[in-house]
Specification:
Layout (H helix, E strand, L loop, with lengths): L5 E4 L9 H16 L3 E4 L13 H12 L22 H13 L3 E4 L3 H13 L15 H9 L5 E4 L6 E6 L3 E6 L7 E3 L7 H11 L4 E5 L6 H11 L5 E5 L2 E2 L15 H6 L4 H9 L14 H7 L10 E2 L2 H14 L2 H15 L6 H11 L9 H9 L6 H8 L1 H15 L6 H15 L4 H12 L7 H20 L2
Parallel strand pairs: 1-2, 8-9, 10-11
Antiparallel strand pairs: 3-4, 4-7, 5-6
Helix pairs in contact: 1-10, 6-7, 9-11, 12-13, 13-19, 16-18, 16-19, 17-19, 18-19
Bound molecules: glutamic acid.
Length: about 475
């Protein structure tokens, strides 16, 4: 029987969640759901120098916000914990010793000055810079002597120097890499902490990870990892490296050319639904040309086989389009909840919930991100300021006749209905001879502050009788 499929998202907490990492997390999540396996969150925080206060909390919070639930993880536990690498350091030391015993790793006593000189010499000779393996040659006695003297050391992998390694990657298929291009990777640093490579391999093994799904930038690490699996005598997981994310100019997606932090996208008013849908298509395509997917649909459709080989361009216009789609299509009550912080920040009084919901219904069709929502909704909440051009329209004789007519007729209405408004529009033409732009522009200006905007019955409905009367009478002053 095929054992349970277990995948993991293994971020190093850098302080924010990169959109590329969101994609990695999403693909792991989707694959686990698709095959009814387990999705694990493991925090790779062994690099003490890179410790960022609050980074883990922030990461977990962001995953929660977008709705990527994991089955095991630091905050929820599981059978293979702890899920923080910083809490597993004892485990790594033991395995590093095992590698030394098996002659798959060695102590290296080179100082940072030694390494710097080595580097400079290699650069001067036009060679690739890497560790030249000089401590490989130390005898057992020399090593012991150095250790006894308390000399600082690192532990390095004894990577083969000749031949090539061939492995299979689900996306890249057959990959071969010459061993001579692979460095004698440091496994245990001088502070006693493991490097990513050692901890990652040990944990993937101990956590029974069956598939490693991660960004392409890790492909070149696979030989080091397979070397370790082999040295330990462990079966390696299947490898699946996701294509690079690119800027529109085809350079590697970077902070410099725009936002990359998922938190920032959320803050700017992108909906989780849109972000997930967008990110899902950055490197994966379905059998059909369909582009809009809910998370549930993705869980059914996703397959590792349909991951693209070539890099995916991060097209913000497409994300905007998708976000606009979800703002229009999702339940308006949900959009209202998501929009609330933006209204509060703008200082709009949204206590009248009925009015607020009506406004959401109107304005959500006119934006692509929630950060634009208050600007579009502002005329419903704020006193309108008019330009000289607006004032000309307002003060023109026809407009003034129109305002008086509407003021008089609205006053006598019991309730404002679409029918009422349409009747009054028709009457304006029949009785006052005002039609087209001369009819719509002044009324919209009076009530919404702009000649273009929502349909008049909608504006009337949102504002309500009192507010309409107030705004119309101001026009006559
Ligand atoms: N900690 C690595 C990262 O931050 C994980 C890479 C992997 O998935 O093996 O991306």
């Amino acid at each position: 029987m095929e054992s349970e499929i277990r995948v993991r998202f293994a971020p190093s907490p850098t302080g924010y969640l990169h959109v590329g990492s969101l994609r990695t997390a999403l693909y792991n999540y989707l694959y686990a759901r698709k095959v009814k396996g387990k999705f694990i969150l493991r925090i790779e925080d062994t690099d003490q120098a890179r410790y960022v206060e609050g980074a883990v909390e922030n990461l977990i919070e962001t995953l929660n916000q977008v709705g990527l639930e994991y089955d095991e993880g630091p905050d929820i536990g599981g059978n293979y914990g702890p899920y923080f690498q910083s809490q597993r350091t004892e485990i790594y030391g033991k395995y590093a010793d095992e590698l030394i015993e098996k002659d798959a790793a060695y102590f290296c006593f080179c100082t940072s000055e030694d390494l710097e000189i080595m580097r400079e010499e290699q650069i001067a000779k036009g060679e690739d810079t890497r560790y030249d393996g000089r401590c490989r040659k130390l005898s057992k006695e020399q090593v012991q002597e150095n250790l006894d003297q308390g000399k600082p050391y690192v532990i390095r992998a004894k990577i083969p120097k000749e031949g090539e390694i061939v492995f299979f990657d689900i996306v890249r298929e057959k990959v071969s890499i010459m061993w001579e291009t692979v460095d004698d990777q440091v496994l245990i640093k001088s502070d006693g902490f493991p490097t990513y490579h050692l901890a990652n391999v040990i944990d993937d093994h101990l956590m029974k990870i069956t598939h490693v799904i991660r960004g392409e930038e890790w492909l070149s690490s696979v030989p080091k990892h397979l070397f370790l699996y082999n040295a330990f005598g462990w079966k390696p997981p299947k490898m699946c490296h996701l294509p690079l994310l690119l800027n529109p100019d085809k350079s590697k997606l970077s902070k410099r050319q725009g936002d990359v932090a998922v938190e920032d996208f959320l803050k700017k008013g992108y909906l989780p639904e849109a972000l997930l849908n967008f990110v899902a298509l950055l490197g994966w395509h379905s059998k059909s040309d369909k582009e809009l997917y809910s998370l549930e649909e993705l869980e059914k459709e996703f397959s590792l086989k349909r991951i693209n080989k070539s890099g995916s361009v991060f097209d913000i216009e497409k994300l905007n389009w998708m976000n606009g789609h979800y703002l229009r299509e999702l339940e308006s009550g949900y959009v209202a909840i998501k929009a609330r912080p933006f209204f509060i920040k703008a200082g709009f009084d949204i206590n009248d919930n009925e009015k607020y919901l009506k406004i959401i219904e109107v304005v959500r069709n006119r934006i692509s991100t929630l950060s634009e929502i208050t600007k579009v909704a502002a005329p419903f909440y704020e006193t309108i300021k008019y330009s000289e051009e607006d004032k000309q329209i307002i003060n023109n004789e026809n407009s003034q006749r129109l305002f008086s007519f509407w003021l008089k007729n609205i006053q006598v209405l019991d309730i404002i209905t679409e029918e009422n408004i349409n009747r009054l529009l028709k009457q304006s033409t029949d009785e006052l001879g005002i039609k087209g732009k001369d009819l719509y522009f002044p009324l919209r200006l009076a009530l919404f502050g702009s000649v273009h905007g929502p349909e008049l019955p909608v504006i009337f409905d949102v504002l309500g009788k009192e507010e309409v009367l107030g705004r119309l009478s101001k026009m006559l002053d």
